[in-house]
Amino acid sequence: MTHLSRSTTPDWWPIRRKEAPWSVKPSPGPHPADSSIPLAILIRDILHYAKTLREARLIVGKGYVKVDGAVRRDYKYPVGLMDVVELTPTSEYYRMVPDPVSFLKPIKIDKAEANLKICRIENKTMVKSGKVQLNLHDGRNIIVDQEEGRKYGTLGSVLVNLEEGKLVDYYPMEPGRYVIAFDGVNVGRHGTLMGWIRPLRRRDAIATVKAKEGEFKTVLDYLLVVGKESPVLKVTE
Length: 237
What we know:
The protein is mainly beta. It folds into three domains: 3-109, RNA-binding S4 domain (Structural Genomics Hypothetical 15.5 Kd Protein In mrcA-pckA Intergenic Region, Chain A, Roll); 116-171, CATH 2.40.50.740; 178-227, SH3 type barrels (Roll). The protein contains three helices and 19 strands. A five-stranded antiparallel β-sheet has the order 5-4-7-8-9, with no helix packed on it. It has a five-stranded antiparallel β-sheet with strand order 12-11-10-13-14. Strands 18-17-16-15-19 form a five-stranded antiparallel β-sheet, with no helix packed on it. Helix 1 (39-46) crosses helix 2. The longest helix is centred in the N-terminal third of the chain and has 9 residues, at 53-61.
């Protein structure tokens, strides 16, 4: 199907369920459909640069919108966690961050930050020629030497230079690191990772995070490392 029933859209999408029977269906892309939002809805319903879907499609179709530095002309393109959205006519930059109310929302960032992105390492694989491929949460794959690849671990985060596609820094998932929850009932809450109780699978471990308003617990797989003792990039307004 090329469209999506409004009644089946994610609850956090800011659209009126009874306004029309259909909504924009995200295209296959770097983020799952239930944790991303199509460009058209972002432009029309969240950033309010358009009043109608037709206007939003026109803005996207003319190449006025970039995601992670690349022009995206597909109005259904899925925008997700930590993506950088640029509106070229107004020179405005936004980063998609977890939020307790709207699950995922854009926050304004400076141009200096727009070329950097934090990505979580979901998997590591060996490729031909003995190198290591890092599989990141946004579908990005970065190949490093085998010796360098040993220092990277799954669930850790890397700071990526979007223009060059190179790694700038690495933040392992370990106690003392600054994290933000991007899923679950604590989505959008952030603080220092204190530790976790590990069952059979590491991803299912129950982690304890010390936030400004008090401690909270969540699944380790719901956390994204965003810095050492504090966020390396802007993740809240």
